[in-house]
Amino acid sequence: MAVHVLCLVRKELLALRAIQDAEYERIFKLEHPDQVPSSIPFQEKEFGFPGSPDKALQALGVTKDITAHLSNIVVSLALFEGDKVLFACSGVAVPSGMACKLDLTRFVTSRRLVDEFNKNRNLDDKLRIDVCLPNNRHRDGFLGLYDERIAIVTSCNCEDYVCPVDLDLQAPRPSDGKIIAAARASESGRLMVTTGYLTVDGDASWAQITEAALGGPLIDHDGKFLGVNIHNYNAESPSFISLRVLRERLEHFQILNTETIDFRGYSLPPGVFSTVPSGFWRRIKRLKSNGYPMPPPLVLEFNGELLNTFEEEFGELRAWKDYPYKVTNPDSWEYVWGLLPRDVVTNISRSVVKLASFNGSVRSFACTGLIIKWPGTEGMRPVILTSASLVRGPDGHSDIDKNLTIHVFLPPGQHSKGTLIYYHLGINLAIVSLDKGIHGIRPVDLCRKEDLFEPVVAIGRQIEEGFLMATKGEVRCVLRSDYGLSTCKINKAGIGGPLINLDGAFVGMNHYDGKEACFLCRRKIVEILKKEINRRVQSGSMGMLHGVGPNEHTRWPVPQPYWRHDLLDVDLYELPPHIGRTLM
């Protein structure tokens, strides 16, 4: 029997994975309709005067010794797939800004690097950025923020080899208009320079230039930094971004922020975009479909984590009968299920469901619910008691979102759409009806027993596989017979789930605000639902949606998901490896 169930589970997982892969392929093609990587190998073209940089600068009429200073601000940025070079340009070191323990160096370059990166993407790409430093040393680079003109590449352990440009040192246009463009070759590491002319209107022209100069610096003959080359689709009219504008853009990118970053509520500045790291396209799509915030730059590559998710577990896990694997929660040593009578465990497994609400294809909320008999009725179909957080609008307080669809799951394989028929935002309660029947259920009669505040158990459904979760605690206090606080350690998945005592008697419905577990008492729930059923009987509107608005004095906050970047707090030499390759 167990072997047969195991085979079925594996077959279902493979079928689900095939469906997901096909959907990812469809979405990827929609987002990248013209994805045709060039079959012509990229050939880097060097430019400028041959020989050493010193002699090249002298040939350009530079009398000051600026070679070392110039060399220390210029790097090469090469895009690779495996060992194949796809594109190469240059970058300029800029101040890192943020305060952290990591040795992070940022380079500004042309947006063209992002375009080449995206042009060579596929579902399972393994693209990488190679940073060639002075003295031909190499580091891994990470392509992050960009706008319509510039892009940012970040690398580690470069401070000893590069010197960021001084963005506060504003240099006027040379009186004779003579300027120098610099770049670094990817293969040889050679510093390349060529002469140019800057007009009063800010237009630049060059003796000779190639793609390698994209992202490279413009300087005057005294070595003062003037700006960055950003594109040269037409070599006769290259474009550059001035030092003043560059500083404004970096401030807008929040690159120059010297405060420690807090990713709670993080969002990209207007007009700024973030590159999806190579190898993470599927994960980004899953995050978006689950309604989670997008990770800030470097968080995925440096193994940051998303906190306050619906998928977090609590307490002791329990799978359904005949599940072929052992399930454990590595973060909990609790022993709970063995304390409950067998019939109580059976009743829980057939009455506790997981729910999710969706806005289109994007999940809005997920939590637990309890199949109940509506108090004061006989013969009425069972309904689901859950939290009104499941259907609240974007502000999370003032109203419900009527565009949401609700899905109900009773593991191991039953699923039904649900319909919201009642809500009370003041006490954070919702009632959902099932659009089709679910077999083998045992609806809970909320009127069956009195409240018994003994040791209590908070129950929830794990959001991913649907395993039951249980954690034991004590009732700390009860306020006005309406609300109570317990010591049960739950999380967002436990919202809407039942709080019971060790005899299985229903005590209340759980809520979690990120700090402690509270619950709506059984008596209050029964009182509210009896009033509502009486109103429906008198009005003759048994199946119609009806609700009660929020209470100004009572709010039901839910902890919002946010990204945590552990590398902001760890020692430099404890840098975890990022996925796919080893930091150089």
Question: Can you offer a commentary on this structure?
Answer:
The chain has 584 residues and is of the alpha+beta class. 16% of the residues lie in helices and 31% in strands. The chain contains eight helices and 31 strands. It has helices at residues 2-31, 53-59, 67-71, 112-119, 243-252, 281-289, 342-349, 522-539; strands at 74-81, 84-94, 104-110, 127-132, 138-146, 150-156, 178-184, 191-198, 204-206, 217-219, 225-231, 239-242, 273-274, 305-307, 316-318, 352-359, 362-373, 383-387, 405-410, 414-424, 429-434, 444-445, 456-461, 468-473, 475-479, 483-486, 498-501, 506-512, 517-521, 546-548, 562-564. The strands form five sheets. An eight-stranded antiparallel β-sheet has the order 15-24-23-27-28-29-26-25. A six-stranded antiparallel barrel has the order 1-2-3-6-5-4. Strand 4 (127-132) and strand 5 form a beta hairpin. The longest helix is centred in the N-terminal third of the chain and has 30 residues, at 2-31. The protein is elongated, with a radius of gyration of 31 Å.
Would you spell out the secondary-structure blueprint of this structure?
Elements: H1 2-31, H2 53-59, H3 67-71, E1 74-81, E2 84-94, E3 104-110, H4 112-119, E4 127-132, E5 138-146, E6 150-156, E7 178-184, E8 191-198, E9 204-206, E10 217-219, E11 225-231, E12 239-242, H5 243-252, E13 273-274, H6 281-289, E14 305-307, E15 316-318, H7 342-349, E16 352-359, E17 362-373, E18 383-387, E19 405-410, E20 414-424, E21 429-434, E22 444-445, E23 456-461, E24 468-473, E25 475-479, E26 483-486, E27 498-501, E28 506-512, E29 517-521, H8 522-539, E30 546-548, E31 562-564
Parallel strand pairs: 17-22, 20-30
Antiparallel strand pairs: 1-2, 1-4, 2-3, 3-6, 4-5, 5-6, 5-13, 7-8, 7-10, 8-9, 10-11, 11-12, 14-31, 15-24, 16-17, 16-19, 17-18, 18-21, 19-20, 20-21, 23-24, 23-27, 25-26, 26-29, 27-28, 28-29
